[in-house]
Amino acid sequence: MHEVGIMESALDAVTAQARDHGAIQVHRIVLRIGALSGVEKDALRLAFDAVARGTPAAGADLFIETVPARGRCPECDLEFDVESDFVFTCPKCGRISGELVQGRELELATIEMS
Amino acid sequence: MDAALKSPPKAATRTIEVRMSLLEGNDRQAARNRRRFREAGICALNLVSSPGAGKTALLERTLSEFGRTTRCAAVVGDLATDNDARRLGRFGAPVRQITTGSACHLDAGMVARAVESLDLAGVRVLFIENVGNLVCPASFDLGESLRVVLLSCAEGEDKPLKYPPIFKSAHVVILTKMDVAGVLGFDRGAAAENIRRIAPQARLIELSARTGEGIAPWYELLGSPPGRA
What we know:
The complex is a heterodimer. Chain A is an alpha+beta fold. Chain A has a domain of 77 residues: hypothetical protein PF0899 fold, CATH 3.30.2320. Chain A contains two helices and six strands, in the order αβαβββββ. In chain A, the strands form two sheets. A three-stranded mixed sheet of chain A has the order 2-1-6, with helices on one face. In chain A, strands 4-3-5 form a three-stranded antiparallel sheet, with no helix packed on it. The radius of gyration of chain A is 17 Å and the shape is elongated. By secondary structure, chain B is of the alpha/beta class. Chain B has a single domain, classed as Rossmann fold, CATH 3.40.50.300. Chain B has a seven-stranded parallel sheet with strand order 4-3-5-2-6-7-8, sandwiched between helices. The interface between A and B is large, with 39 and 41 residues.
């Protein structure tokens, strides 16, 4: 359950942003989570409910956007979407690539506050 | 906060673009660790596997053989006990146990604090034995030069397909306990193919820490790690 620690750092950042912008209530938080980040969305939500208590983000709407995995074939110099099995098969030449260009994101994207 | 409380209650809702990594603190510390290891000429390896795959057994043999001619050090993470540090402490290399309490992975700060109290003079190879877990350690850069993922043949050939994030991030994958592969009916060809499908970037080593079978490529890798200046 490393999601608790990750959510804590997200809320630290959210609280700091709210303070810097003179806001007292956070309405919506958008996270971007890569399909290969190793982080579970449901566990993040569970952690959010527990960790947000007593912060300006309590009761805020948590929106988690999944960033799909994308690979790159070095032979064809081609970027491509990866299926759910995470085997990075180049759609052009069929080789399996180890190059990941997207999918590990763990990002606090936007905050709505007033 | 006071200013905020005094601001008009009907302040307009604003959307702030943050675009910040949630692991920023860890990644910054990992970069500091990496710089420190590089400046000291140390190759740091982050060893990751499920519990019981044989990380400590591999390090015992490595410290007792490879460690005789090359100065090594180890930090080892577990939720509780210093059993592993005691196992590894018998070979003369500096060893530190990190007990994480309930944390399911090591982070860069824990490694930095553990390393602080180790005598790293002359050390060429630092082993960082992560908490046994194939999920959470994938997200946490420790500042290592190489990430080594171990998979014991008792765990089944399809483990890489079930835990892609950690295998995707591996520089090296080691199949362990190969001395009992036959008894277990382990299909090494199928395992190698699954590793190649998920982690084509990783170097594959098959060995047994108990018998020493297949250990030479591991020592060769430690002796001249890729990317060392």
